[in-house]
Design goal:
about 150 residues; alpha/beta; Rossmann fold; 5-stranded parallel β-sheet; about 40% helix; globular; binds 1,3,4-trihydroxy-5-OXO-cyclohexanecarboxylic acid
Length: about 150
Amino acid sequence: MKKILVLNGPNLNLLGTREPAQYGHETLADVERMCKEAGHKLGVAVECRQSNHEGQLIDWIHEAGQEIAAGKMIGVVMNPGAYTHTSIALHDAVKGANVTLIELHISNVHAREEFRHHSYISPAARGIIVGLGVKGYPLAIEALVGLSG
Ligand code: DQA
């Protein structure tokens, strides 16, 4: 069974209690359950990881690149959190490891502060899901499965 990796970046471990007006009341555990259920329905295994550390996310993207090249993984769904707006290193990792990536944001970053309007990840992403709440995660999984043909 092919795999999809769901990566959540900094502060997303606080989902549920963190600014619920922006991010809703679902916890990270709820999100990961939704992702696994979506994968189950579509016949793919979904693995979920979260880190507050940029280097850890980079290492996981490199590993994903190897699994994609080996035909074991379809791609990655990543909510890079605030690294979206700062991390050239994450951009380089996605490009350098040749990862098929859906960038995801729970909130509509374009309707928020100006510093959230720019993403270093978007030019390296295959697609982007923004502002659909946590329901965006299963949609991203569906999209990756669709793209894999
Ligand atoms: C976020 C938006 C980012 O601007 C913010 O730093 C986050 C979460 C979102 O899911 O809406 O941590 O990626």
